[in-house]
Design brief:
The chain is mainly alpha-helical. It has one domain (2-59). Helix content is 65%, strand content 0%. The radius of gyration is 14 Å and the shape is globular. The relative contact order is 0.09.
Length: 63
């Protein structure tokens, strides 16, 4: 079960990267943050501080 879950999560991340790339292309947005997102979701490393806005626990429930 755990191997299947890991495989499914990897597939989901690959799908997320494809969606991000498509949205970037459609919006003609080609900035550094867009490439940062593609690089992050294309790799295996996890960064708990990846999101560019405050975390909910840090400063309330605002983005």
């Amino acid at each position: 079960m755990a191997d299947r879950t890991v495989a499914e999560l990897r597939q989901k991340i690959a799908q997320a990267r494809e969606v991000i790339a498509h949205l970037i292309d459609k919006a003609a947005f080609n900035g550094a943050e867009a490439h940062r997102a593609l690089d992050y979701f294309g790799g295996d490393e996890f960064d708990g501080n990846f999101l560019p806005w405050p975390h909910h626990g840090d400063e309330g429930l605002r983005p």
